[in-house]
Amino acid sequence: MRSSFAFTFPSPRTAGFALAPISIALSLALVPEARAQEASSGSLDTIEVNADRLGSFGSTTVQVGTFRDQNPLDVPLTNNVITREVLDAQGQRTIYGALRNTAGVTRSQLSGSTYDNIAIRGILVENRGNYRLNGSLPIINLVDIPLENKERVEVLKGASSLYYGFVPPSGIVNLVTERAGAQPVTSIATSVNQHGAVDIGADIGRRFGPDGAGGIRINAVAGKEDIGIDNYAGNRNLLSAALDYKVSQRVNLRLDAEYYKKNVSEQAAIAVPAAVNGVITLPGVPDNRQNLAGEWQRYDADATNLLARADVAISDNWLALFEVGKASNDRDRRFSQFENYNLLTGAGRLRISQQDGQTFENTNVRTELSGRAMTGSVAHELTFGYTRNEREQNARNGTALFFAQNLYTPVQIPFTPATGPMSDNKSQIVDKGLYAFDRILLSEQWQVMGGLRRSDYQSTSATTNYTADETSPSVSLLFKPTPATSVYASYIEGVEETGQAPANRANAGEMLAPAVNKQIELGVKAEVAQGLLVQAAYFDVKRPSTTVDSLNRFVLAGESRYKGFEFAGSGEINKQWSVVGSMLVMDPRITSTTVAAELDKVPENAAKFTASIFAEYRLASVPGLAFNAGYYYIGKRAVNNANQAWIPGVGLFSLGTRYRTRMFGTTATIQAN
Asked: Is the dihedral of CA 346, 349, 354, 360 positive or negative?
């Protein structure tokens, strides 16, 4: 549900400003200009053929949960889509970089140097269940998920248990892969930043077979990593393939395979000091080029994701879907945390956790029947499904190492090989569910949606064994006063895993009992201008809360409530202007707890206010030339549930430009961010 809070410091400071890496990219399209779509690598730009117009910041479909292939106007929940064009304009290649375009997104504990630990609306996005590939496979977010082969990143906010089982109500992050289109794709891209990082990638897509029945899209990336902090070095790689084949008019097959790897030095975290008389005094922010860990403290991880899907049209009105997938992650890690330090002198110790041979594996099966039926003049869009997800992990740990270190004048940490045997910490979760969903189309203006899921859950570890049988309802009402406007109300109950005790707690590795969450949402959506989708919603989420007790154990403690308003807009204002923006105003509270000091306080890491705006302007007088600017703000956050200290709010500005032209006889894009 939440992790223990620690400080991490991002990119370097120059002249008093925190600067993100300046990225310069070149992308070449080695095909004729008749092509309609291209993809980029890393912070590289998309290659488009229309010199007057690049791609779209908006989307007309959603590819997540029971709302696959639906128009966002017909989805009775807050949903955000970060399109390929937004990712390219911003030069984004990380999950946090993409999701900061949506309201309520913050980092939790980690700085992103190895992977992004994300919270939405102050609720952790669980790394083994809330990230999905193509709306289905739960992939494992314990190493940077590359975006080079992704067509879009989607967020369906709130409770999602009907389709996804035991997951927190933060939301589902769905990554949709690129596939081969009607036109061939061949592009080569490279980028560099001012710290010396460099990468190169290739993107190739082709149709083949009779009438283009088959398609293949291949992405490959290799690069050297550097983000401008001390004692940091490494590399990353990606190889992926997305295949599809139309066997007949009624049978379509898909296969996605991706392998990615990252080996870097992990930045040290800085622990929150102990409270004195109920108040925590935080240290001054050190130079954020500083890394208290040694370069030899590696984070070496890789991931493999495989997802196969078959769509079979049983009749003109009914479709059967079969999916099977497997996601695995292996990592060796030397995680370090600076602790027990003196605020005046900075003297303390660096605790290094040896975590070699850790393994995580998800196996997912889904079968689904969907179709359309009539009862008199009322239409029903029905979905019946069964899913089984098995998650196994071995979060191995070894003997902790301790070194003297200083926050203000850090010293080099001497290389020390692993000492002593590694201890296994195995656990298994089996989450099975039967679900039914009915979208009732009463008229062109009125829709009623209802669903039920019956879950069978079992969690087993060395110290705990939990079972749960839960029925989760979902109901919503949607009214469309015009074809371009919808107003909705929804109520959802979900079930979630309440978390695993982190390594720095006395009950490290313990799995907490599952629990129920409840959500109400009221919202309005509208399409305005030339394709600008605007959304406004009120949400109220009640969920179990956790805390750290007096014995340093991570435990369930009561209930928290997250309620507030969210606003978002994305798409094109006119031919020259595109925009994506969001804002969250929230009142999160701990409404019941076994710890008196935490009652009515703000939950750890929950910002009451966040906002983001990013816009691009394309010059009509210079076809292919575009300028962009963005601003991203996160309000202050409490470091613990007792609100004994606060991290101040922070804002980030970004600027960029890109120019698409002809170079060496082919289409090229040059970009700087």
From this structure: negative
